[in-house]
Amino acid sequence: MTAALRAQGLGKTYKRRTALEDCTLEIPRGSVSALVGPNGAGKSTLLNLAAGMLEPTSGTIEVCGGVPGSGPEQLAKVGFVAQDTPVYAGLSIEDHLRLGARLNRAWDDDLARRRVERLGLDPRQRAGRLSGGQRAQLALTLGLAKRPELLLLDEPVAALDPLARREFMRDLMETVAEHGLTVVLSSHLVADLERVCDHLVVLVGARVRIAGDVEDLLATHHRLTGPRRDVSTLPGDQHVVSAAHTDRQSTLIVRTESPVLDPAWSVGALGLEDLVLAYMSSPDDGSPGGAATGAARRTGLEVVR
Amino acid sequence: MIEFHLDARSGVSPYLQLVQQVRHALRLGLLREGDRLPTVKEVVAQLAINPNTVLKAYRELEHDGLIAARPGVGTFVTRTLTDASFAAHAALRTELRRWLAKARKAGLDDESIEALFMTTFRTAAQEDIA
């Protein structure tokens, strides 16, 4: 498996605050990866590091086989649409397209103009007068027309209504189908990403809690409900991600490669959102919830295979 | 041509939903040998989903010998699933209706009927495996 993005022990510290810590992961080429986590978890920092807008404080990061932003060749390979879909408010759509054509050697002017036409936008209109959805679509157009190998999108649909979200995702997926680029997009809402991503990275508190192929993750996580039970009595290959108890009942979310055979449990499948929430809400450091940490770390590392 | 849909709350992964919908259509005779399936791009445009998901579903159906891709032309159904068992559907449906009527008469509501059916179905399936 070739990686579009590879991070080894990556970290970023601002003055006193740790934004990203000991991040080791791989994003497979051709995948659509979701980067999820609560606000302030380090998603934007990771994307900015991948785009070469920030320098790491520790560790290394490599995108499309090179150091981010290390030269014109490298810059051409990676597209980055930062948060809040930045466009120049005073420039027209036409100005944006011309700027894109001047600044990018692989610029696909055809693609850009076809998209603007299909979106029903007037090229003479100033970007500052566009609606949130239109601005997001213009920023995506610029990102796509650059024809990058890897496209990084930071919270691309956060400001969009449900219809605009669907249209944005559809356009993005059509381009993936046509050009086979790798996409990494961040969101704090999993529901937006369930249909589109095949790879998942969960960041919580500046660390990677879990990463992997979505199908694999869903197949190896289960919800167990049954009579109250001490989690330390579970088989060794069942890693507890989260546990909740009432006086009689226990509800666990576990990760395990093998089937759960204990008849005391009723075993249920987990949706992507439940899985992410389980990792977001479980403790991260080595204290009492240590089993969860162990499971997450191991999974985080397994992805490097 | 078949039109796919996705149920986000079904708990079934998108790729499996596509596979199941094709198999279902084949079983009900809605898709027949020689029918063309929508292209990956058409499905992506319609459902706003990851093309890899569609490719994965088509690969699995191809592996099962149900469809075949003809490069540059499209993906076509090569086999139907409306085998001999299709003829038995009507009789089985009548019997099931009769059973449902009996269950209601005994005082079972929809939920109890579904629960009874599913547990019996699962137990029977497990016994078959064992």
From TrEMBL, chain A:
InterPro entries: AAA+_ATPase, ABC_transporter-like_ATP-bd, ABC_Transporter_VariousFunc, P-loop_NTPase. One of its GO terms (molecular function) is ATP hydrolysis activity. Pfam families: ABC_tran. Residues 5-230 form the ABC transporter domain. Keywords: ATP-binding, Nucleotide-binding, Transport. Residues 284-305 are annotated as: Disordered. CDD domains: ABC_DR_subfamily_A. SMART domains: AAA (SM00382). This is ABC transporter ATP-binding protein. It comes from Bailinhaonella thermotolerans.
